Structure to design on (136 residues):
């Protein structure tokens, strides 16, 4: 079994969020199909939410990596990402979110919500704090 020391996990995650790292400039989007992401998932597996106002987030800006109680190296976005319909014409349930490279061409990671998030009216919102954990 390969073991990565916790100090190296921190270095690896900080490298991933650096200017040339794979997490630099990523964008977040909600998906509407009932899909549980797996290691074999590809970008085309996800059907993006398309309610009025559903657009990919601005590029995520990451904070410095830290170790959590599980000894995972974690980085958290410095701001929240909010998805909110601008009208009530196309109600949808968000099943989860996916993260792409800045161009929206490559899947980086995805997560299914514990339960769908209803986005039916301008009073509904889905607020996320992008987080990435590695190791443990």
């Amino acid at each position: 079994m390969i073991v990565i020391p916790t100090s190296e996990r921190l270095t690896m995650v900080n490298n991933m969020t650096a200017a040339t790292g794979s997490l630099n400039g990523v964008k977040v989007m909600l998906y509407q199909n009932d899909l549980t992401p797996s290691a074999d998932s590809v970008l085309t597996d996800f059907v993006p939410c398309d309610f009025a106002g559903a657009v990919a987030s601005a590029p995520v800006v990451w904070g410095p990596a830290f170790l959590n109680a599980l000894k995972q190296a974690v980085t958290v976005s410095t701001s929240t990402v909010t998805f909110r319909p601008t009208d009530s014409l196309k109600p949808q349930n968000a099943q989860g979110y996916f993260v792409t490279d800045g161009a929206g061409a490559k899947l980086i990671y995805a997560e299914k919500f514990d339960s769908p998030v209803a986005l039916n009216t301008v009073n509904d919102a889905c607020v996320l704090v992008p987080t990435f954990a590695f190791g443990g």
DSSP finds one helix and eight strands in the chain. Helices lie at 6-17. The mean pLDDT is 96.
